[in-house]
Structure formats: C-alpha cells, structure tokens
Amino acid sequence: MADNGATTLQSRLEAAVGKAHILTAEAEMAPYLTDWRGRFHGHALAVARPQSTPEVAAVVHACVEAGVALVPQGGNTGQCGGATPDASGHAVVVSLARMDRVRAIDHDNATLTVEAGATLVAVQEAAREAGLMFPLSLAAEGSCTIGGNLSTNAGGTAVLRYGNTRELVLGVEVVLPDGRIWDGLRGLRKDNTGYDLKQLFIGAEGTLGIVTAVVVKLFAAPRSRGTALVAVADAGAAVQLLRRLKPVLGDRLVGFELMSAYSMQLSQKHMPALPDPLPGHPWYALVQADDSADTSTVAELLESALGAAIEAGIAKDATIAQSLEQAADLWALRENIAEAQRREGPNIKHDISLPVSAIPRFLDEAAGALTLAFPGLVFVTFGHLGDGNLHYNLAAPPGASADAFMANTERANRIVHDLVAAHGGSISAEHGIGQMKREELVRYKSEVELDLMRAIKRALDPRGTMNPGKVL
Amino acid sequence: MADNGATTLQSRLEAAVGKAHILTAEAEMAPYLTDWRGRFHGHALAVARPQSTPEVAAVVHACVEAGVALVPQGGNTGQCGGATPDASGHAVVVSLARMDRVRAIDHDNATLTVEAGATLVAVQEAAREAGLMFPLSLAAEGSCTIGGNLSTNAGGTAVLRYGNTRELVLGVEVVLPDGRIWDGLRGLRKDNTGYDLKQLFIGAEGTLGIVTAVVVKLFAAPRSRGTALVAVADAGAAVQLLRRLKPVLGDRLVGFELMSAYSMQLSQKHMPALPDPLPGHPWYALVQADDSADTSTVAELLESALGAAIEAGIAKDATIAQSLEQAADLWALRENIAEAQRREGPNIKHDISLPVSAIPRFLDEAAGALTLAFPGLVFVTFGHLGDGNLHYNLAAPPGASADAFMANTERANRIVHDLVAAHGGSISAEHGIGQMKREELVRYKSEVELDLMRAIKRALDPRGTMNPGKVL
C-alpha cells in the first residue's frame, strides 16, 4: 500500500477491524493468496479479518469508497479458485475465519444459528451437543467453513437423503456490495412473503455479497445404520440396484456411491491397511442406510434387499459391515480415492452430474470417444451415483508421462462436457465455477440464462466490486 | 377492444393462439376475472389461452409491443388475488389451462416433466401410474395447477417430510417478460453452474415471468402408514410431543397438525357423520407417519411412542386409526375446518408461521391481547404445527354480527402481525402476497429487503408489465 489512496484505505480498514487484523506483509498474506491445492495464485492490497458483522460492513464501506474490489474467503478449501484474488493486486481479501461463534440453538425448532467462519466440523459438533445432527459432510469438513459451504452450495455424501447445502439453509445474514447489512436470519420452514432472497446468495460464490451468518436445519441423529459394499457388473446394474433399494429403504437410504474397480484399487494400493472384501468385480456400489429409531431393523432390511438383488442377478455379491469399524473401512475405500489418485500423479478431472438414468449410456459413450482420442488412457470413475454426480477423472496411459497427458485437458474437457451437455447434465455438479470454469460456463449455458445471471449481478453489484472475475 | 392499438393487439393475439382461444366477451372472460372465493374482481382486454410455450412467448411479445400488462393464471384458486387482474382493464390474462401435458417421466431419475397447466391431481396421478409418488397435496388439488403451485411455492400437508413446492422442483421453463423462453428444464439433483435462477421464479407469483413447464422430484410411494389423533393440554404439550416423536419416527413423520377443540368441533358440527373419538380435551394433534417399506412397523412405532408420551404426561389420550377409513375420518376432522368455518360466517384470517419453539408463547400473548381488544371473540386455531405454520383465525363473539366483526380486520391484523414479527415469524406462511398483503409486506419487511426485491423485479421486468400490482 504505497500511494495516498491506499494509505487512506488501510487506515480505514485498521479503524474498522483493528491494526492486528489487517494483514499487508506478503508473508502474512501468502496463505490467503493461494488456494489449498496450490493451483491458483493471486495478489491483494490487504487481508482483512473482521470479527463481527458490523466490522465486515465497515470493511465493505471502506472498499466501496476507495473503489477497491473484495474477495470473501472462508476456509480456502474450494476446488475452483473462487476464494483466490486475481493477479492485479487491487483487491482486499475478507477472511471470515474470526467470525465463528454459534449464536443460537433452538431445539424445538431444530435450528442452529452460526457465523459464517465456523468450520463445518464445529457446526456438526454444536448440533451433536444439542442431541441433534447436521447432515452436511465432506472431505474438507475440518477446514471448510459453513459460509463457504453455503456460498458454493456444497454437496457431500448425504445429498441423496438431506439435499445440498441449499436445502439445509433457512436464513442468512449478508453484507451487501454497498455495505448494507441484510438480516435474513429467519428460522422458518414456511415463508412466502415475496422473493426468497437467500436463494440468490446460496451458490453465488461471494459474487453478490458476503455471507456473515446462517440459520441451518438440524435433524434427529441416526441411531441405527447399515453399510454395505455391493459388487455389480456395470453402472447400469448399479442404477437398477438403486431403483430397487429406494422403495425398500425409503428415506433410510442416505448414500449410494459408485466406484470402478480401478478407483477402489487405488485406495487399497496407497492405504494397504484397507480391506479388499469382494475382489474380482468391475464395479462396486457403497450403500448406506440410517434410521433415527433405535428399534429399527435397517441393517436387516438392507441385507434382505441385497440378497434379493443378488438372486435377481442385479448384484453379483455383497458384504454388510458387522461393526462401525467395518463400516468405516468400507467408506475409507471410497473416501481415499481422491488422495490415492493425487499420489499417482495429475489427472484430468471432471465434476459432472447427469440424470441418474443417463449415466450408463454416458459412461459407454464417453469411454468410446476418449479411448479413440487417447488410446490406453486410464479411467478413474467414482462418485455419488444416487445424486447423478460423478467424479469422472482421466489418467495417463500406463508408462506415459502424467504431466504430458495433462496437455490434453482442453480436448478431453470438450469430449466429456459435450457429452454431458447432450445428456442434459451439468459441468459442475458440486464444486462451482470459481475462476476455473468461467469459460466452460459461457460455452455451455444458453445466452438467455447468461443474460439472466448478468442481470442479477448488475442489479445487486452494479459496480462489480464483489469477487470480480468469479462465476460470471 | 375499441381503438386501433387494441385491434392490432387482438389480431396479433389471435394470430398467436387462434381466434377461438382469445376471449374478449365479458361473459366469457368473467370466470378469469374473479378469484374462486369471489373476493377480488378485475377487468382485462382479453383472456389468452395458449397451448404451447411458443404460443405463450408470442402472446408476451404481442403484449410487450403493445405496452400491455400480462396476468398469468393457473387454476385461479389462490388465496391472495395474485391471479386476478386489476380494475384498469389494461391487462391480458394468460391462462395456462390448455398447457397440461405430461412431457416425460424418468423412473430411474425419479422425475416428471409436466406443463404448468396440469392440475395437481393430474401430476399426482401421473406419478402414481409410474409406481412413484408426488407428495404435494392440498385442499384445492383438483383445480389448482402445478404452475400455480410453483408460482406460490405451495405448502400443504406433507411439508414436514417433503418440504414446500420449492424443494420439489428441479427445473423450470419460463417465458420471460421480454418474450424470450428460458429452457431450464433440467432434472439434476446437483448443479452448481452459477446462480440457481429457477429459485427466482418459484414463489414470485408470476411477477418475473410465466412458468410454462416444470421438472419435479418423485418419491417411493408409502406402503405402510400410521395415523393418530392425540389429545393434549395445550400447544406447549404439542410441541413437546413433536420433539419426542421426531427421533422415534425420523423421516416417517409426514404430518403433525394442531387443532383447538373448537376448530375440530366446527368440523363435527357441519359434517355430523364425522367421529368424535377423544371428547373433552382442549387441544388435539393429528399425526401421520408413512413408510415406503412394506415390512415396516410404522403404526406400532407410533403407538408405542404415544403410549410413552401418555405415561410421561405429555399426551392426555390418543387413538390410532385401525383402517384407512378411520385414518380418512381423522384427516377429515382437520381438513373440513376451513369449510365449516366458512359456513359459520366470515372470519379474520391469518396464515402465519413462527419458529416452532415460539408458538406456545405467541398463542398466549396473542390470546391475551386480542381478548382485551375484542372481548368475547372466538379463536379458530389450527394448522401445520410441524412446520410452524398456523391458520390463526378470529370469529365474532357468540351472538354478535359476524359482518360487523369483520370491520376489526385492520386492528386485529396489527395485533397478530406485530406479535408474529416480534417472534421472528412470517405474515404469509403458505398463501403468498398477491394483491391482498402488499401493504402488510411493506410494513413488516426491512427497507434493505424491499430494496433487494425491487432490484430483482427491475432487473428481470424493467417495464413492469408482468403481473403488475402483485407482491411488490
């Protein structure tokens, strides 16, 4: 911060949140200027760490008057660079990390009011202490914040039953791009008094305002659980199995994950302590069913349904966890794929969704087209089949250079995303757009839809100072 | 349609949808110009009845060029006059009634694509024929349309488990105020590619565009059911009962209704065939639990939980339906209150929501304040306690003139709505704003929130021709 305008801004920021919480030294700012995967790097005038909503508002007011852009940041665990400032160095990063208080728990209303900077684990813990449950769960939960979850409409492992973050949010508090505070912290299940404005801020990746607090729904905690690994011949059989389990398990069905044998073997290779309970099949489904009733027979229900599916030839084999440890091991097979994959080297990754019914055909068509384009390439296919969400990743042919293979990213994206679009799918199921997928967004959205998005952005942020260069 | 401009418009409308489907005679238009309760009356240049999305777009284009406003209309069953044109006679009513085709059912994706003019019953039927279930259900379901349900974010009797209409919608097709068609008919459970634009049109009451088709979620149909009527001492005990049943029944808990003894007696008075299974208590809860598993013990679960609640002194008495007929009778006690009430004479009605935890105190405070203001008045209190939604209606003291009592509406609204606001509640839980509650909206929304709503309206409908005089 060299010139006078910057000095004035700095003194205003310091007046707003205290000198100790305005970082300007490069070394201090560094952790805020690069995303956790180290893929995006930016610069900033300063990093502000406000501790209250009025402090956030004061920071925004100071930046508005200085004509300086703002980049809201939660746990900095995003996948698409949405929380990393651009290279211009003209923005102020607003870290919500110090705003992490639980403001209220209302047991009879089954709601929790919490500030945006609380980690997802802290929110889960607060719900648990109240004898209830917050169902959002994802790999980064120890570091990501509830504000970031809301701003990216995070998905995770229980969407099949509980929905995305959007479905879990009842109210929000937002500092708007003009510095005004909108208190929309309502804890109501029904409210039809005009436009549902909170929906605008959910999934907006900080481009329409800074979310400072949120009211989320809580649920009865599960008291009985069934977890099974099921071997199937192909994705089509997995879809048939899902269709069969839905009426039998009803709302008990919380997770239905798909893994190719290769992706599961990657987990086993890098975490050799993990079991290999059903070797020799091409595809696996991981099924979890929960029930909050302690008189429940959910594991028996699951076992008999899987027995019938094997008899009908839909499933090849199945194993049901006999203990919480066994269940954790089965989940570890799924959850360690991303890390195992990282250790193998870089991949061309796709976070896509499709109508569940379209997944088998998509997989066939994509495999055909990609094998033709890149002979010998390796598919690392897994994901949340129950939600139609696949992590569809591509690795270099055995023996080939992984880094050289990455040069095919653009061409591979075109093949995959064109097919996704043809099947009515989405090129970003749960990770958002950030700065990474802006060009893809323009390529695949209709002009009408892009116009509507731009109209909303202009209406709420006419100066374009809120997280510029993200999403739109 | 007298002058030349109007003649041009009429010929354009006729060219767009066919002469037979442009109504201009007063007698033909009459059913479209008055709401079903006969409370709102308007005038119009014409009623257009398009049969396809391009026809709707052509109607909008014609009106845009003529500078004429549009009033979208579904089943015309709204409670707040949202589908009735104003008195100016300068608008064209666009009835979606002829757009009622089911476009697609995708069983493996559990989605249904249907045009806006299909009745809710037709949508339920189409789901049932596919072996699945669409859970939205409400009194007007034989006449109301799915487009109207979406535009008012309808609630109904199963919100506790399945959410409002908003939670049931995956995609929409909309004709925008400028006549362009936005095809957002996606059937995806996860899609984080920018702003979730469909949320804008859900609950907008036709002020941002005309919804022409929708993709909704389907569910496994229930195969076992438990229905119980429970006597409780007061609303506080009902809240305690709800808290107790939630973990035991989990997602099986579909409905939790509250009725005062007086409101239930009104049903019995006007429908004398209805039973009176638990006479002599001041309040009643109606509980329904469903399970899609046919091996389920949902009625036994409910019975044992209610037994324990009686033992704990939370419930006074309970009866469990032993047949579908008995269950239907218990529901009839609840569902006939509105009609019974209508036969008794006019009421001052409130469709409010509160945090569930705040309901007992709200009822105490409101009863105190209202009794002081209107000695002897009669409370007709019932509603969806599980969602925090009460139909809180007030009738004249016995012997007093009901019509004279209605003159107190404004004063009663102030007492009730001020208390609702003080407890963080909503003055319109499930019926919307329409033209009826516009002034109340301005009174109770913050300036910031009203500004945001107006900014959205201006951004999408800068000419203000889409359903003017509604909501904002």
Description:
2 copies of one chain form a homodimer. By secondary structure, chain A is α+β, with helices and mostly antiparallel strands. Chain A is built from 18 helices and 18 strands. Chain A starts with a helix and ends in a 12-residue tail after the last helix. The first copy, chain A, has a 7-stranded antiparallel sheet with strand order 15-12-14-13-17-18-16, sandwiched between helices. In chain A, strands 5-6-10-8-9 form a 5-stranded antiparallel sheet. A 4-stranded mixed sheet of chain A has the order 1-2-4-3, with helices on both faces. Chain A has helices spanning 4-17, 26-33, 53-66, 120-129, 146-151, 159-162, 165-168, 198-201, 235-249, 261-270, 298-311, 324-335, 337-344, 359-373, 402-406, 409-422, 438-444, 447-460, and strands at 22-23, 46-48, 69-73, 91-95, 102-106, 111-115, 132-133, 169-175, 181-184, 210-217, 219-220, 224-232, 253-260, 283-291, 317-320, 351-353, 378-384, 389-395. In chain A, helix 1 (4-17) runs antiparallel to helix 3 (53-66), helix 10 crosses helix 12 (324-335) and helix 10 packs across helix 13. Chains A and B meet through helix 6, strand 9, helix 9 and helix 18 of A and helix 6, strand 9, helix 9 and helix 18 of B.
